[in-house]
Every structure is written in structure tokens, then in C-alpha cells.
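Next up, sample data:
>
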Amino acid sequence: MYICSHLAGPTYFFTTAGMNDSKAFGLNLGSTAIAFTGTCLSWFVLSYIGRRKIYLGGMTLLCVVQLLIAILDAATQAQGSLWAQASLCIIWSFIYSMTIGPIAYCIVSETSSVQLRPLSVVLARNAYQLVNIVSQILQSYFM
């Protein structure tokens, strides 16, 4: 259960890991609320910290949290480990929503020249959607 993705449905991952359906749905609902809070906080964080620091710090924190989730998954199958993984998934969602998620839109819109900006944003968004389709198909096989 070490993959956390709000696009793939955390409820499914929590239930396949052995969590009760109602608790998994409640965690998913809480995760969405925390992600929304992280996005709102990113507006204020962006004005005080630079984009590069937010992006690199977010990537580092996300990597560490994913590593902790993987270690917990490989180390034990205890019920306490399941709750620790679920809480780390929620923390991961908060960090993503406060750092990488919103900052990516700022970076994409500022990297090209003014004349090429609309074209580069469209190309970046289309490339993202194509990669997302492939990754969502492959993710089910990996699980």
C-alpha cells in the first residue's frame, strides 16, 4: 500500500490493505480536506519562499514520506502499520498540495517567452494528460 495517489482513489488502496470500508472512506474524505487546506496554504507560502525552494523541498519531503511508507509496508503487516501508512499518505497529500501541485502551474506558465507561452502551456498540459493516462493504466498492473 505504499502508493498514495488522490487520482487513483485512496479508498481503494486503504480497503485492499485491510481497512474497514467506512474508515477508508472517512480517511479519503479527510485527505481531500487536508489537501484543500494545503493548496490554500500554498498561496501564502509562495509569497514568502521562492519557487525553486518550494519545488526542491517538496520533492525531497515527498520522497522521504514515500520511503517511510515503503519501509512500513515491507517491515510488517500489523494493523498499527496500516494506520501509520494511511496517516503518512495523508501527510504526503498535504505536502504535495502545498508544494509540487500548485507550483508546477506557476513554473510552466513562466518558463517560456511571452509569445510562446500559450503554446507551451497547451503542449505541457497535453503531455501531462497523455502521461497520466498511461500511468493510470500501468498503476493498476503494478498494484
User: Anything to note?
Assistant: Confidence is low (pLDDT under 50) at residues 1-8.
